[in-house]
Amino acid sequence: MTLEVYRHLFTALAEEMGAALRRASFSPNIKERRDYSCALFDARGVAVALGDHMPVHLGAMPMSVEAALAEVGTLEPGDVVILNDPFRGGTHLPDITLISGVFAGNPDPGRPTGWAGDGALLGYVASRAHHSDVGGMSPGSMPLAREIYQEGLRIPPVLLFRRGVRNEELWATVLANVRTPVERAGDLDAQLAALHTGSVRLREMVERRGAPAVQDAMQGLIAYADRLVEAGIAAIPDGRYEAEDLMDDDGFGSRDIPIRLAMEVAGNRMTLDFRGTAPQTSGGINAVAAITSSACRYVVRCMVEALLGTPLPAGGGSMTAVELRLPPRSLVHASPPASVAAGNVETSQRITDVLLQAFGKALPALAPALSQGTMNNTTVGGTDPRTGGTFAYYETVGGGMGAGPQGPGLSGVHTHMSNSLNTPVEALEHAYPFRVTHYSLRRGSGGGGLHSGGDGLRRDIQILTGSRVTLLAERRTRGPRGAAGGEDGAPGQNVLIRGGAEESLPAKTSFDALAGDIVSIRSPGGGGWGRSDQAGGGRPIPSPALRQEE
Question: E strands of 163-278, at which residues?
């Protein structure tokens, strides 16, 4: 009971950090879409609580904390580390992470930041947000690039604040290399506010309950999560389960790029072996190890929670029961100078799909069909004729969720590694020189079956000024697979409407749009679950764990 109370306290801390970040942020991508994540870590850098934010962020944030401690060293009160380097704890360049230590004692009232204090290290708080522009060759910093140097400003783990004093040279350097410096400064300040909120709440917890009790609860939750993961893996039949799926293309001519997985289960241990996956490519679909680790942590956590019927605390714990084998310089373990912008958003989804297919062979009555498998990344930038200032717009578009044994998939939602919202039409048209001309579900795009997959979306945006547009999408060649005999979902489509005529666009493309052009994103539907001739066949099939109990 005590651990459960602490689990809620720690989770509420991470959620309140996210609320502070959202309220204080400047950009629609963070304020409206909630493309951010916040987390609490113990004094060793192990996750204690993750907010219900972005899975692709949260699973990778432990590596950010690890990299910060390894490169910067011991953090002092008032220190804040900033980083976005995908090869040193980050994921892709638009995701900027801030990390600070939380120390026992009251903040020093003489410091304007309110972080400096004395006493023992209690843990770390971290906030990560997707910034709508961090420089690079295209507005929005999600370009079709061959090297990471083309993607934007690359920040290794360095101190943005030292004992509460901001590094003004570093701050000026960051803002000088982005297209929207006022918005970036506002969003970074919002991330700092999130760190402050988390620090205050953790110190309040310690003042009320004592540091030993709080730290014991942190370790207890991590250990409990580790035991639950082991129990969940032990409920999976021992064996080797192989799966493979394909990326559509890399944007530079390579097509049908495979991701291969062999999942081996032996007792309460699991090995996820990605050997046989394609080498890293010219285009930006390369995923760094942090992304692959994040996707694996997410799927294992989902399946274990479904098997045991209970949530995993501490973000799944240390996951020491799961071993990853990632071939170097591959699509799932890229090395410099690989471009990686789409690895975070697109390849992470395909890694999730491959894992779910492997689990579908091990637990056919439990694993769902595949969801849309893409984030349909849309970036537009140029000069806003209303203000004369530069704008940079970034958004991902929802689609169909895969159906499962318990029911149909949801329509028009973000799934798996993406957990964001859409930018409301009113906010979109207020912030950018756009007009939304069509927004609807793609009826019938979800795969049929005993339970139908969710439908994708159609979202048409008319651009009212000459702009640079970049699209990074997947599932344009083949739709998401159904499961247990269900039908595949319909693939998506990118369309340019110019002068009333429609032109099909590649899955990954960059072009100059004219004033009046309409960019139409038509996202995939989710896969269906079960054969349609099974309809009326009774209650849903129980999971293996439930069947054993019965």
Answer: 165-166, 239-249, 255-266, 269-273
Q: CB count, 10 Å around CB of 508? A: 24
In angstroms, the CA 129 to CA 91 distance is 11
Nearest-angstrom CA–CA distance, 502 and 520? 9
Give me the helices (H) in 440-512, please: none
Q: Report the C-alpha gap between 231 and 235 in whole angstroms.
A: 6
Pairwise CA distance, residues 245 & 241, whole Å? 14
Q: Report the distance separating Cα 326 and Cα 276, nearest Å.
A: 10
Question: For residue 21, what are the CA distances in angstroms to 61, 125, 182, 189, 338?
Answer: 17, 13, 16, 9, 31
Element spanning 532, H or E: none
**Residue 121 β-bridge partners:** 103
Distance CA 459, CA 520 (A): 6
Dihedral sign from CA coordinates of 375, 352, 340, 473? negative
Residues for the chain: how many in total? 550
Q: Is 532 left (phi over 0), alpha (psi -120 to 50) or beta?
A: alpha
Q: How big is the CA angle at 18 (ends 12 and 23), to the nearest 5 degrees?
A: 125
Angle of helix 181-209 relative to helix 2-24, nearest 10 degrees, comes to 160
Q: What is the pTM of this model?
A: 0.93
- CA distances in angstroms from 140 to 154, 280, 439, listed in the order given: 15, 23, 22
CB-side exposure of 54: number of CA atoms within 13 Å?
29
What sign does the dihedral 197-198-199-203 (CA atoms) show?
positive
Instruction: Copy the structure tokens of residue 493.
Output: 């489509």
In whole angstroms, what is the distance from residue 491 CA to residue 488 CA? 9
pLDDT at site 533 = 83
Alpha-carbon span 181 to 175, nearest angstrom: 5
Burial class (CB in 10 A: 0-12, 13-18, 19+), 320: exposed
* φ, ψ dihedrals at 135, nearest 5°: 85, -155
The predicted pLDDT at position 52 comes to 73
Q: What are the residue ranges in the chain where pLDDT is below 70?
A: 53, 57-59, 106-118, 535-550
pLDDT on residue 72? 94
The CB density around residue 110, as the number of other CB atoms within 10 Å, is 7
Residue 91 CA, distance from chain mean position: 9
Q: What local confidence, expressed as pLDDT, does residue 549 receive?
A: 30
- Report how far Cα 301 is from the mean position of its chain's Cα atoms: 15
Question: Three-state DSSP class for 220?
Answer: helix
Angle (nearest 5°) at CA 149 between 257 and 473:
35
What tokens appear for 296 in the block?
């694996």
DSSP 407-423: BPPPSSB--TT----PP
Task: Give the residues across from 127 on adjacent strands.
Answer: 38, 98
